[in-house]
Specification:
3 copies of one chain form a homotrimer. Chain A has 310 residues and is an alpha/beta fold. Chain A has helices spanning 16-31, 55-66, 77-80, 89-96, 112-119, 135-149, 167-176, 195-203, 214-217, 237-243, 285-303; strands spanning 44-49, 70-74, 102-107, 124-129, 156-160, 182-186, 207-211, 223-226, 262-264. Helix content of chain A is 36%, strand content 15%. Chains in contact: A-B, A-C, B-C.
Amino acid sequence: MGFKNRDVISINDFSKQDILEVLDTAAEVEKNNQKYREALKGYILATLFFEPSTRTRFSFQAAMLRLGGQFIALSNPKSTSSMAKGETLYDTIKMVDGYCDIIAVRHPEVGSAKVAADATAKPVINCGDGAHEHPTQTFTDLYTIKKTFGKIDGLKVGFLGDLKYGRTVHSLASALSYFNPKFYFISPKTLSMPEEHLKELRAKNVEYEEDEDLLKVSKQLDVLYVTRIQKERFMNPEDYAKVKGIYKLKADFLNHAKKDLKILHPLPRVDEIDPELDKYAQSIYFQQAHNGLFVREALLGMLLGKIYKK
Amino acid sequence: MGFKNRDVISINDFSKQDILEVLDTAAEVEKNNQKYREALKGYILATLFFEPSTRTRFSFQAAMLRLGGQFIALSNPKSTSSMAKGETLYDTIKMVDGYCDIIAVRHPEVGSAKVAADATAKPVINCGDGAHEHPTQTFTDLYTIKKTFGKIDGLKVGFLGDLKYGRTVHSLASALSYFNPKFYFISPKTLSMPEEHLKELRAKNVEYEEDEDLLKVSKQLDVLYVTRIQKERFMNPEDYAKVKGIYKLKADFLNHAKKDLKILHPLPRVDEIDPELDKYAQSIYFQQAHNGLFVREALLGMLLGKIYKK
Amino acid sequence: MGFKNRDVISINDFSKQDILEVLDTAAEVEKNNQKYREALKGYILATLFFEPSTRTRFSFQAAMLRLGGQFIALSNPKSTSSMAKGETLYDTIKMVDGYCDIIAVRHPEVGSAKVAADATAKPVINCGDGAHEHPTQTFTDLYTIKKTFGKIDGLKVGFLGDLKYGRTVHSLASALSYFNPKFYFISPKTLSMPEEHLKELRAKNVEYEEDEDLLKVSKQLDVLYVTRIQKERFMNPEDYAKVKGIYKLKADFLNHAKKDLKILHPLPRVDEIDPELDKYAQSIYFQQAHNGLFVREALLGMLLGKIYKK
């Protein structure tokens, strides 16, 4: 299946082959960036962010600029846009369709990215639809793993923190399932991996363990994927207060881990990783954030039919 | 009168000849867009929106980018700009004047666009000054009519909804007066066309009818221009509640209309046109929104002296 | 000391030689602007404004565009960014570092620009860190003086208004100290120049007077630098009310001044300069604002190693 004009709604819409094609193209763009400086000249990206974001928005906008394209942006819809006048997302997309070539949308409602994609023939990229999906984050996570380890296959990957609401965890676990992993799900019981996702893993014969104690499994891990416990996903502030900060990685944690463990985090972090850890080679979360640029350059170029894997 | 360095404050500042020149230039830009991809290279547009907007802002920004220009933008002045420190619009424009080549401004105060134009020698485009004027919307409406019917002359045009506060209605009726129209003003009595505008039409010998019942006149119409009843123009929420949603077009309305009726709407809509109507050829409001791009490209190019009618 | 990759945190980090190099480069960029239209092609500036601003943000963004570069922007961090999720400035900068080539930051906390600079190897420009520093304003002020008088040396400079909290006053007085000035500090006692700054001036053998009455010294002045009494710097609204508007320049003030006095103001103004003064040759505050463009073009080009003084 070609990438031109395709939507990027869910990581589950992509085959193993598709995923590898995106990662290879990202590697090509990173390596030969001068070659692509005019690749999207004359193209306009619309970034429509109906929820706070900096990382994803900036990486998409910078990706577009790095390829010679341009962008128009909606960042604070409540006070600055027609949404304030009661316009539906569908109508907003139908309108924006006339002013751009490709659309990147973040919206708090589950399923909103699909609604957006249905409103336009132009490619739509889901940048997060509520607690649901955030596929370009998953491509970024996979790219970071491949770039760091030289492979994705056969890794032992721990997921730490909020595994219940963490959309990045669900999507990454699902995508990694193609690559013969072993998973360690480490969380308080109230934030454990939802049964539907575990069931999916069992159906795919993916090996996994669940645990509350990080140190019990830490020596096994090649990758530790840390997540923020996201205040904005809790209905009840008291529930948030109970689990907030239950896992806080400090430098001494490295004594309990393999020497070549790599720590990932989709960011932003609050206090789940002590900044003193930043300086260690194990901490690659800022590199991971930067890798998002190449993945998004690859996707923009592929969906617009201007960049192909060699 | 040449267009270079001219301000666009009110549609009434434009002769019939002027209007046709803008529409012809828009048609040229739409048809031969590749030819104009670098027309405004090196030019900067400042979009200053002191009220919510997406359509107008996006279409101006995209127009500038499509012509190879760039923009700087103010979107949420209350919290992010010097207006928060008490700066006047006049001072803001005097300052912005140094950083751009042309200014597009939306501001809630009637007359504000004129204030802006007086503060700078650079061209100023009024993107809405309160309930007053929004001339580029009118150019867009006229362009859509001309593109669809191949002519503007002699059409029967119905205006539906809020004819009292609807600035787009007043401006479009005024501009259409050049083209031998017949008007049908369909509204609740409390939102009927203001007497000053009717008087102007009589002075110009424009034929019109006023009615509360759409179905009584619908068979006559070539164009039905639907408007949203704008909550933000009412002082009193109860007055809004009374008239909100009094006309809601559904698909069965088409049975009561000419087969080649065209429905326009300046958008955003709330619920005055059922989305089930979107798929019919009669519904051209999204095309109308997209046409705004070409009209704005034409105006930017003309005011900057870089695009001329052939 | 070369300028490439340097941070611009405080005006005090710059020698007299450095300052003159920036001013000369700004003059070159202003004079031969066509020559630099592609100087920063392919470069991306990130403007991160955690406090309201239009002038500084616009002048940086326009400067980047005028040199062929591009920008990404954060304007309303409270509601639209990851700061809303509790991210530190340090982490935000570590992340943005991957998406741009140079960073311009305004943040309400004293010392924040230094924090930002420490988080990245890329050049960071302080656009205001609370009541502390705003060095590009000082470069703009100096450039305006040099351009107007043909020199900086030996001028008699009055500072009017809020000399206690006015960061632009402190920085300009400090930078002017290199140029054999005489200062007149005119303010209510509660807003007088802080002793630490006066002590610094005495150590440098800079001559100065302090006064509450503008008219007593106005005939001496070559330059009158007017400041707004900044509401946002007062903890207590009553303290603000007491001093607000204590000096309001009107046209008749010119009778009490040298014929070739020049009035500067960092803007925005509220009511400390009557708009009737705008039309007089003595009033150069809007030219001053516009000069900010050239100074920022020079700095961006110098820090990125693409524009050098001839």
